[in-house]
Amino acid sequence: MKHYRGKQLIEEVDAYDLLLHGVRGDMARLENGDTLMVQPIGPQVTIEGMVRRPAIYELRGETTLEDALELAGGILPAAALQHVEVQRLEAHQKRTMLTLDLSSDGNADGVAKQLSAFKIQDGDQIHIFPIAPYNESAIYLQGHVLRPGRYSYREGMKLTDLLASYTDLLPEPAAHYAEIVRLNAPDYRPASKALTCLWRWQIRRRRRSCSNSTPCASSAAMTSNRHRRCGSAARCAHRASIVRPAKHTCATRSFWREE
């Protein structure tokens, strides 16, 4: 912007210093009758993607990609440096696409050297791509469980490292089915594997915890209901499996069974 007082040019103000850096300098005060002239926009670049201030910026002495990214506040940590695209407009002719790999050197000095060596032009559109949105070496636990979420993976990890016992599930889970969805390299196509949840383990554990030789209340109630349906306790086919204490089952060893 140009600050005029009458026909006299008082000063030229760079609004970017004020908007981007908060620098005021020695700007003169406005007086009654002063004029501010905003000139037509000059050369500009568009910066998109993983930067702190994606926008369209006017170039005033900035000639390199490093200068342009400094206007945009710098690159975010989630940016993929191996894939930076610059769409260039060749005036009155065509558009071309340029690709940069800024991670080849593997150090900050090498990245800065590549950024300062790349010259930008009027009309360039710079796009910084993000890194992959998914986590490597991670397991996602979902469904009717007590603590769903993302967990780190290690070699030799088992399902019982995530779900050690029935207490890691919410009340009344699906009695007979669980599923593992696995992404197989190289195309990471999903494949599912079915598991059977040994839900009887909870009943057996409760039955084994009874201190006397008589069946516990839950077993007695189940037996009574069975007898009402079949009509005779002596002929009930379910009596032995419900009343007699079942063999103890280890939770960490037999809680899940692969089909």
Could you name the ranges where pLDDT drops below 50 across 5 or more consecutive residues? 199-207, 209-254
Query: In which range does the helix fraction lie?
Result: 10-25%
Query: Strand order of the main beta sheet, please?
Result: 5-4-8-6-7
Structural class: alpha+beta
Mean of all residue-level pLDDT scores: 76
Distance between the termini: 74 Å
Q: Let me know the largest β-sheet.
A: 5 strands, mixed
Q: Note the beta-strand portion.
A: 25-35%
* Radius of gyration (Å): 35 Å
What overall geometry do the principal axes of the alpha carbons give? elongated
Total beta strands: 13
Tell me the number of helical segments per DSSP (H or I, 4 or more residues long): 7
Domain module tally: 3
| Series of H and E elements | EEHEEEHEEHEEEEEHHHHE
SSE arrangement:
Blueprint: E1 2-5, E2 8-12, H1 15-20, E3 35-37, E4 44-49, E5 55-58, H2 65-71, E6 79-90, E7 94-100, H3 108-117, E8 125-130, E9 138-141, E10 149-152, E11 178-184, E12 189-197, H4 200-208, H5 217-230, H6 239-243, H7 251-254, E13 256-258
Parallel strand pairs: 4-8
Antiparallel strand pairs: 1-2, 1-3, 4-5, 6-7, 6-8, 9-10, 11-12, 12-13
In words, what does this structure look like?
- Mean pLDDT is 76; it is low at 199-207 and 209-254.
- With 259 residues, the protein is α+β, with helices and mostly antiparallel strands.
- Strand 9 and strand 10 form a beta hairpin.
- It has a five-stranded mixed β-sheet with strand order 5-4-8-6-7, with helices on one face. Strands 2-1-3 form a three-stranded antiparallel β-sheet, with no helix packed on it. Strands 11-12-13 form a three-stranded antiparallel β-sheet.
- It has seven helices and 13 strands.
- It is elongated.
- The chain has three domains: 2-37, no CATH class; 44-130, Outer membrane lipoprotein wza domain like (Outer membrane lipoprotein wza fold like), CATH 3.10.560.10; 134-259, no CATH class.
